[in-house]
Amino acid sequence: xxxxxxxxxxxxxxxxxxxxSPDGTIQFNFxxxxxxxxxxxxxxxxxxxxxxxxxxxxxxxxFEKFRILIxxxxxATETYKLVVGKKKFVNDPFREVIxxxxxxxxxxxxxxxxxRAFNDGLAFMYSFPQQKNWNSFALTDENSTxxxxxxxxxLGLFLPGFTTSHEGEYTSFLLSHVKEDxxxxxxxxxxxxxxxYVAITEAALRDYAGMYLVKQKGVLTSTLSPLPGAxxxxxxxxxxxxxxxxxxxxxxxxxxxxxxxxxxxxxLNQPNQLKxxxxxxxxxxxxxxxxxxxxxxxTFAPGNNxxxxxxxxxxxxxxxxxxxxxxxxxxHEWYTNDGxxxxxxxxxxxxxxxxxxxxxxxxDYAKSKGVAVRVWVHWKALYPKIDTAFAVFENWGLTxxxxxxxxxxxxxxxxxxxxxxxxxxxxxxxIQFHGVEKPTGLxxxxxxxxTREGTLNYEVNKWEKRITxxxxxxxxxxxxxxxxxxxxxxxxxxxxxSLFAVQFERPLMLGTRCxxxxxxxxxxxxxxxxxxxPAAYEGQAGFDFVKKVPTVWDDTKVLNASVSEYITIxxxxxxxxxxxxxxxxxxxxxxxLLDFLNEGEYVAEIFSDSDNVDKDPNQxxxxxxxxxxxxxxxFQLAAGGGCVMHIRKK
Length: 650
Fold this sequence. Notes:
It is built from 12 helices and 43 strands. It is α+β, with helices and mostly antiparallel strands. A hairpin with a 2-residue loop joins strand 27 (328-329) and strand 28 (332-333).
């Protein structure tokens, strides 16, 4: 094993390279100290990171001495249109420096450090340019470090190992109190004195291993998910030249809302690779597994049959819900499977529905009602038959699927996920990943990825009491910073904390119904779930809002926010605004400024917590009022409560 230390030979040690963001608030510097490459980052003149070492660990020896060639600078702007996203049109100016490093001895191999500074953060990556005498490499790890100059408070998810669904509670304490060698998931949020916020994550994760953070000798250091079954367990990434790593991203601002509004993650990804995107239709979907596949007391039997799915399809047609998902019934998948539980057996076949289930009949009926059909699949049942399965799915008339239980982000699994997206697009199928790591902006490159999980979410209400309004807030300030966040939305049976009981069918919810309505605005997801059963919604207060709230947006603005306490987000679609506020366990008054509106009068339909939500959290108050850009509204949010507004031009 060899640790790459990017040593500068030809230039004096005091020489350094610097780069500033377009607005000058973020400053990056690169230099040598004690013959080791280090970098620093400051925000508005105040240091955040100092003397943080950079390096890569290769399996083979070499790279003992380097020289820095002439650094190349450029200024540019990422301007593009998102098919699915928090904004429709993105305009992200940045400055870039490429720092070429060349080996001083034969065979004179080269590595480039590329740094980009945006107004809301910076990112760096290692690039391996085409060259003679170096065709491939094997990385045993990557030693990118983040040496903070102070002791920030971290809000993060700590994991027992690399094989994970990334589902757990987030904890908050000083970085100095984090145990050494504990695996930290990303994004992780760091709050500095004076309320400067830094989030660490990655972008453009392709043909590489997922990155985590560990504290080693007091310094946060990157570590990569290992390859399974490699010739040595220490190999993390195998690659060919030319090649590159993902971007290592630092989102930075003294306003936490800036991190949520940021499009830096998608701006660091390649442009849309799909020529035809007209078939990609974001929207909302049923997911009957969550409610227990509830059907009314009728003459038809429950189970994987046409009548059961027709019941949900008719519900979608009546209420403008774009998708119905065929999942399972009574613990049995819709496709043939001889495995245990959800795990596929050796004869599992996603191209063969169980007896009595005609998938083409279901798709044809749904199409006649203006509803699209999608399915749930276990990745181990799908991937071995991926080409055949996608052709069959397209022939049936399916429009997409949830691919579940991936639970890995090593290089091979990352390659498989991209292959799934590419091949699905060839058959006009969208993808929703579950049991998966955070997004890294690939929905710009392959917009048929509509959402992904990687959160401890409302599905857990079926078997544990863990998902609280406080947890919802923590997700917003961590996991959601990376992108779309699937959360099993739509539970309409809220109860006081003292009355919560675990039940696999008709699960209960903590927090108020207004909190749930606001989650449809606050969380970013291009495929919003409507998980409960039809009778739980129809005729219920607040369902009208669920029916009309979009899942993709033209613009996003954070109106107010306090980490782990509350947040208000306004999202625009066409000429309408949807505003959602969610609250933690402490009741509070919240002011909302409407200065994001244009001039003129608007009608605001407002859904807020009733005075009786401590006894019945499903009660809400609805009223309409005329509002203007100059208005300053005040709402009383209950403990675990929320508020939503639908604002239209008068």
